[in-house]
Amino acid sequence: MTWDDSYDVVVVGSGGAALAGALAATHRGLTVCVVEKTDRFGGTSAYSGGSVWLPGNHVLRRDGVDDSVEEGLTYFRATVGDRTDADVQQTFIETGPEVVEFLENEAGIPLEHRPFPDYFAAPGRKDFGRSIFAKAITAEELGARVDDVRPMVPTDQFGIEMDRSVLDGGQAWIARMVLALDESGRADLRLNTAARSLVTDESGRVTGLVVSGPDGEQRLQARGGVLLAAGGFERNDDLRREYQHMPTGEWTSSHPATGSGDALTMLSGVGAKLDLLDQSWWCPATLFPNGHAVFTLGLRAGIIVDDTAERFANEMLPYDQMGRAMRERMLAGTGERFWYIFDNRFGDDLPAICAPAPDRQAMTEAGLWFTADSLAGLAGLIGLDPQALGATVERFNGFAEQGADADFHRGEDPYGRFFLGAQFAAQCLAPLDGTRFHAVRLVLGDLGTKGGAVINRDGAVVRADDGEPIPGLYAAGNSTASISGEVYPGPGTPLGSGMVMAYRAVADMAGRVVEAGAAATS
């Protein structure tokens, strides 16, 4: 094989897991090449709030959170169960504090805790969460690289200009890691460069990667290994229909140029064991006139119904759990249409977090927002049985009067109350009794798929036939079968688990580079 360039580590993708792995490589003295097929770094991680879920770390202690690895493991196992390998679960939780130490004290990324509740009422839960965040960074600190960081959804998918003088959340993580990689002098960061295929030798070991970019097709040697952290297949219509029975890939939060399943294709080509292909990080999403669906959370009022005009869940559930309730209704045959019903008690804007906020006039013209002076009139506009919708609202208003939701226990969990604040807790069950009623079309969205390669405790991809590691091949993030299985334990689980397993993968690669060097000089 003739190589165009040679590195110790080649990383596919540029989200949080990918860049954390790349940083770990440079701090071990390795050379690394990051290939990103789009024109911006960050992937879906750049859209995120930036929460990273890693129990028992020093940032939590410093910021006054009473937490431990043991509590985190208790909670994780209580929620995930035995759906994924117990050894990998334990390794993830136990390695988390080491990764946080590395990110802040070696890579130089300033971190802080911000409150956001864990998602399940299970042993070990923290009502104010255990998530850490990269501190915001100014565009001035970032310099010319600011244009290389993927902007938030309103700008990236809707063309809405936003102030980028300060980058926070997921963008702060991406910006700070890109800056640290630049400063390392050991990283080659390539935009507009797509991974095409893995290169293997006669023994089946992955030795490099074929890419195509501005300089045409090239072969990159990876002496330690290749880390696939290129996201999932959420934007691939065919794969979504095949594995998840979803009607389209358009309702995902990811950018249309990402999430095409490139990693899954490469993994399948080398006989990798795959799992959880039917799973995503689900969420309710508001459907917009351009066909995109926007992650919607933090409901403050109103109810959600399906085509039967019935409530079917606690609307203030954590978003993945609400999304799973929607998915159950879809698979049960009650249709793909969901309606967010609310009144003008708190105004006529959408009483939930959705960025960008939907424009009522444009949504109305597109048939995605309806308004009427009565519930019966609203039901007629959206094709629901007026008597059924009236009965649903009457029952909900009765719960509001009693102060308790006997059907779904809305308002009883800390997560649902978190978005309102303690002084507004009673608003969790505010009745629908206004003078105008609105219905906004919701669909089942997601924050990416969570099925892919099965990995071991060192982030190595294992073979389907015998469960042994494929030499030289590693994966992290949404290119893997998530360590959390079919649940979403807490805010930042995707980023936290991805960063940890990328870190462990690079540690394993570093050992192999050292072994190969020793063998070559002996």
From TrEMBL:
Cofactor names: FAD
GO biological process: steroid metabolic process
EC numbers, comma separated: 1.3.99.4
FAD-dependent oxidoreductase 2 FAD-binding domain sequence ranges: 8-495
Catalytic activity: a 3-oxosteroid + A = a 3-oxo-Delta(1)-steroid + AH2
Residues of the signal peptide: none
GO molecular function: 3-oxosteroid 1-dehydrogenase activity
SUPFAM superfamilies the record matches: FAD/NAD(P)-binding domain, Succinate dehydrogenase/fumarate reductase flavoprotein, catalytic domain
Domain of life, source organism: Bacteria
Pfam families the record matches: FAD_binding_2 (PF00890)
Keywords: FAD, Flavoprotein, Lipid metabolism, Oxidoreductase, Steroid metabolism
InterPro entries per UniProt: FAD-dep_OxRdtase_2_FAD-bd, FAD-oxidoreductase_2, FAD/NAD-bd_sf, Succ_DH/fumarate_Rdtase_cat_sf
Record-linked PANTHER family: 3-OXOSTEROID 1-DEHYDROGENASE, FUMARATE REDUCTASE
Family per record: Belongs to the FAD-dependent oxidoreductase 2 family. 3-oxosteroid dehydrogenase subfamily.
Protein name: 3-oxosteroid 1-dehydrogenase
Organism the protein comes from: Gordonia paraffinivorans
Gene: ksdD
